[in-house]
UniProtKB/TrEMBL annotation:
Pfam family, one: Catalase-rel
SUPFAM superfamilies hit by this protein: Class I glutamine amidotransferase-like, Heme-dependent catalase-like
EC number: 1.11.1.6
Catalase core domain residues: 32-420
Role this protein plays: Decomposes hydrogen peroxide into water and oxygen; serves to protect cells from the toxic effects of hydrogen peroxide.
Top-level taxon: Bacteria
Molecular function terms from GO: catalase activity; heme binding; metal ion binding
Protein name: Catalase
Chain intervals for the UniProt region annotation (Disordered): 1-29
Amino acid sequence: MTTTFDTDRGNGGETHQHVSEKGPHDGVNHLTTNQGIRITDNQNSLRAGERGPTLLEDFVLREKIFHFDHERIPERIVHARGSAAHGYFELYDSLSDITKADLFQRAGERTPVFTRFSTVAGGAGSVDTPRDVRGFAVKFYTKEGNWDLVGNNIPVFFIQDAMKFPDLVHAVKMEADRAFPQAASAHDTFWDWASLMPETTHMLMWAMSDRTLPRSVRMMQGFGVHTFRLVDTDGKSTFVKFHWRPKLGIQSTLWDEALKLQAADNDFHRRDLWEAISSGNFPEWELGLQLFDQEFADAQPYDVLDATKIIPEEVLPLRMVGRMVLDRNPDNFFAETEQVAYCPANIVPGIDFTNDPLLQGRLFSYLDTQKSRLGTANFHQLPINAPKCPVMNFQRDGQMQMSVPKGRANYEPNSLSSDGEAGGPRECPVTGFGTFEGGTSQGEKGNKLRVRAELFADHYSQARLFWRSQQPSEQAHIASSFVFELSKVGLKQVPPRMVANLRNVDEDLARRVADGLAIILPEKNPAAREPVDMESSPALSIHANMMDTLQGRKVGILIADGSDAAALKTLQEAIKDAGGQSFVVAPKIGGAKLSDGKQMKAEGQLLGSPSQLFDAVVVLLSEDGAKHLIKEGAAIQWLMDAFGHLKAIGYTAAAQPLLEKAGIEADDGVVPLDQSFVEIAKKRYWQREPKLRLLA
Ligand code: HDD
């Protein structure tokens, strides 16, 4: 047998694949070992005799098992579960008036990005829809190096100082001795800690709201959270807060819906993102900036360096500066989504940090954690982390060094170039990253102190602002979430302590939570600093701002034998025209024989496609179909859940008995199926909720 070598293989990085290269002579993909040796048999290990012992000599088996044994790496200590996609950021207009950052200079220019969305508390294998904050991390591969904007879908954070981060994470993760609950804050240790930390209150209001139950990562806002700086060519700094606004608007699920989604599809968000991108419905967000100066900062009743505070949009409107489009799914989950290493310290000239003590701690933590997660200080060389601009320095060696630097120049200064050798790169005093030198307003210099600035002591004004900016339907959800979460707490001292804090936010909220828990309203916990009343901010409400649209949303259509073929076609077209997606569900995946005698294949089987997977539903049944399905509990449950989750329901006359059996009462969202249904399907029917649920 002739041995041939595949010369373009085995030089590391993306060409190091086992089965994708073509053999040089016969056009076949050859299976090889990691050393490039072709494998004759991938089914049987080498043994002495047909039934004899396996031989140690079998390097093919040993290598295969050895590599498999080492496939896993430590998961992220937080944000372990996530999904990501490639895309680009496109600038609307030049921002050269406020920053010299290269990606913000030329209108229309696109910068590649890789964006990862995550839950915080659960492990990598946990579900997508727990009540949890969502990470929103964007890596911009700019021409002047990588800039990582590592944010969340909530504009504030639990704590003010990085010193408390390990405590927060220990408290919220599964409890130390029993290792449960997974991916949930509804347990003793979290609320014990949170109730002792009044600075968490504002974030808790957001966490208990529908913000932590997003319908899709495509329908979440993103926030850089901290105040950063933009710096122009003259060295002038402007404070900035970064906001991502989803093109599809913000949309959330209900708590009961989110719970049932966990059962219906653990990967609900991951699948949704993947399918949207692979079907060409590219998710999009606009980048908005809140820009301000020191004078503005000094005039606010809160400290802009405090990550538990927002600047209401009504006070400081957003300047929309560009859009991010995610248009390509990862090729490989591990190589990209798992190995991507974000770090708030990855910053480019023209953007800079502030003294926010939470941000300052983050600047250390991320670089540090990547070493533990990815195993080597060379993780920046992984394709997903590598900048798309030249990287040249005198750092050398280390585990898994992938680059092969040439010559002797591994120190600086050197004079090697004067002898005709390469001397290596040199400093860039003008174009290099220059830290902003100003920032000596009040309290920004002085003795070394372990203290917080005075205004950080106001823990309640903005929690109150958030509460007052919510619609009654949202307030009911917040109060009910507090009740639910605290009802899971076994430590007797904790719920009263939490309610005592909430009395500083709003007396009505505190009373509702106390009632829901059947505890006596405790004394108010004295506030470290008396809250002030701020003008409410309608922009903080989801329900008030929800878009009436089918874009990015899915309508489930239940059919059975005899369903009207023409009506189904018309409905599907109308949904498509409105930018939505229809999904046909039938008792059997093979589908149903429609009124025209043709077999229509279903996209989902009824038992595997509960109505929580959809934004609106239609029961498109004939008399026969309805007679059959009225005996199917899953069909009745399908309707009950759609109704309970405040969704639009369209039905044919024949399907009416099913609605009755499901206890559905007519309202604006429950309508006989006709042309107008797509309009009805664009909304959620919040007004239905008080009739269905005893909320706090
Ligand atoms: Fe963090 C991951 C967001 C505070 C320490 N964080 C991580 C991720 C996001 C955030 C989105 C996942 C990135 C990815 O997809 O890989 N973190 C935030 C936000 C914060 C915040 C918005 C407050 C404004 N984080 C924060 C503090 C510390 C950390 C105060 C520590 C002092 N965060 C980490 C970490 C992680 C992380 C331990 C875990 C995995 C990783 O970094 O890469 O370093």
